[in-house]
Amino acid sequence: MIRGDRIFGAVMIVVALGYILSASSIQTSFMSDPVGPRIFPYMIAAVVILSSLVMVLRPDPDQDWPAGPMVAQLGLALAVLVGYAYAITPLGFILPTTIAAGVISWQIGGNPRRAAIAGLGLAVGLFVLFRVILGLGLKGLPAGMGF
Question: Is CB count within 10 Å lower at the N or C end of the chain?
């Protein structure tokens, strides 16, 4: 795992540098805020680079890879996140986020009822944060169903 951590860390540094390069080409209008639209991608890239440097310089000792049921759970989580990425545009933010957060909460170890409540709470809370507080143009529900 030591070698794997170092390889992954190096690859993520290259990806983060590409992200910075891509973010540097974001066009700014004359009416943008003083910080500009590039600062958030730069901050994300900086965190990725710092985390990747830690993986390269201080990798974890060798660990056993997951097997059997754990691989199936990881596959389910991956499928849920890919489905979430495809569903968020046509279905809005709240429904896909509720489902994805609920399934992943259930996988972490919650019972299904509490996971569903957590998923709904997370979806509504994040929607309020993004739409109301941050003022992003986020579609909450599918077209024609409301906000």
Answer: C
Nearest-CA neighbor of 5 among 64, 47, 55?
Answer: 55
The per-residue DSSP string of 78-143 comes to HHHHHHHHHHHHHH-SHHHHHHHHHHHHHHHT--HHHHHHHHHHHHHHHHIIIIIIS------SST
Query: At CA 61, angle to CA 59 and CA 66, rounded to 5?
Result: 105
Look up the domain containing 8 and give its range: 2-57
Helix (H) or strand (E) holding 56: helix 39-57
Does 42 share its domain with 77?
A: no
The Cα 138–Cα 89 span in angstroms is 10
Task: Tell me the HSE value of 22 on the side-chain side, using a 13 A CA sphere.
Answer: 10
Q: What 8-state DSSP symbol labels residue 62?
A: P
23-71 pLDDT, tens digit each: 888 777 666 666 667 788 889 999 999 999 999 998 888 767 778 888 8
Tokens linked to 99: 């489902």
Pair (51, 83) in one structural domain: no
